[in-house]
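Sat 14:20. Reprocessing the chain from the morning session after the first attempt stalled halfway. Input below, unchanged.
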Amino acid sequence: MLRMRTEASFDALHDPTDLARPVCVALEGTLVATELFSERVALLFRQRPWVALALPFWMLSGPDRLKRRVAQSSKLDAAFLPYRRPLIASLQACRDAGRKVVLTASADLELAERVASHLGLFDAVYFSDPAAGASATAESLKAAFPQGFDYIGHSVADRPALTSAARGFLVGAAPGAASALGDLKQVQVLSRRPSVLRALIKELRPHQWAKNALVVVPAMLADTHSLATIGYGILAAGTFSLCASAGYVFNDLLDLDADRIHPSKAKRPFASGALPTIFGFPIFFGLLLLSFALAVMFLPNAFVTMLALYFVGTVSYSLYLKRLLLLDVLVLAGLYTHRILAGGIASSVRVSAWLLGFSMFLFTSLAFAKRFVELHALANDEQVKNRGYSRVDLPMVTGMGTASGYVAALVFMLYVDSSTVRAAYREPGLLWLVLPALLYWLGRIWLLAGRGQMQEDPVKFALSDRKSLTCVALIGAVVVTARFTPLWLVELLR
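Finished this time. Tokens:
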């Protein structure tokens, strides 16, 4: 029992005394960090959604027939599966040392052979009919290797093979599986499955909800403040956050293949296999339903329309618009500005043209910065996957992005000198202090992007960057002071 509770390293596979025994590894859930059925269902929804509508009817024929129909309707690409890279590296080391490496599968022989061909790692592929039961794999391996074998699995379903093995290993083991197999003294845990709850929270991206603070901005800038006005703004931001998380789930399901070959996006919950892809669409529909239910019950009908337009915009962006040159950037900036308009409707506050213009130019600059980072990461003159840009576009993207940022600063400067400001602020002259902080922050974003020192999303970067947060705090303090300037300070400044 003690050995099962202690997680070993992958070096445990490299025992020189085991070279005579082959090491056999299960495909589903072990070599690949996901269940193939859930991958096929997600692929069906992505590529042939009209066929996916038949799933409830296929279920009536029983689980075996359901799996066969789904397998016939969707063909997984071995290049885009979420492989456990540390395990593959360890198996390669075993093979380099002269040990035989075998892949076992009990669901899809054709896919197993394509995986073996793609990785170029396995000496043989052994397939057992799932209808023969869980012990079929163990029986076939005992017949093939009477001298003994080692086996790598991940769940209780692997018990017969682990029991028959000279040494057994668990990879990506759930706590329940490790406990249930604790009586097998020859079995070690090499790695454990990440928490599904933690993966779910990561997938919802709550840190991105900070973007929806824009929905509350009209309530905060209103001529008169009340708890009800601010409360409606906060509730509206909550509905946008739930809707945005639904959009992230939908986008990640659509971009699954592209994410899995991306250096950083491969760590996303669905792409890595930490969150089963079969959970994706139920999570998506649940978040969307909750978001619109809150909006319908507590907020104006016009806001519900704005929320629906936001959802349509995000889905259209995920499905198609993100592939269109320049239009993708304008849509991203428009979705940020849309939040401000929606917040004004929820709070019954009129949104000024100055604020809308400033927002559009500012977020156009940040959207271009996001594209710049993607292009800068390319090794040669190739095109970003699912985007309309290639590396030769870097100078133009830089020019348009920096120009948009400084036009936003110009709009703010003109706003400070407008009659609108003089009517709303006690000491509008203090707002000039915002300009250098804004220029510093925009310039720093672009300089860091050019040096390759910024994350893919500039907004996400700003939320974790101390200097960016300091700029935001300084700008907020200046705006509050200009609006509610104490009389003694007004007299002093004049």
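Residues 1-6 have pLDDT under 50 and may be disordered.
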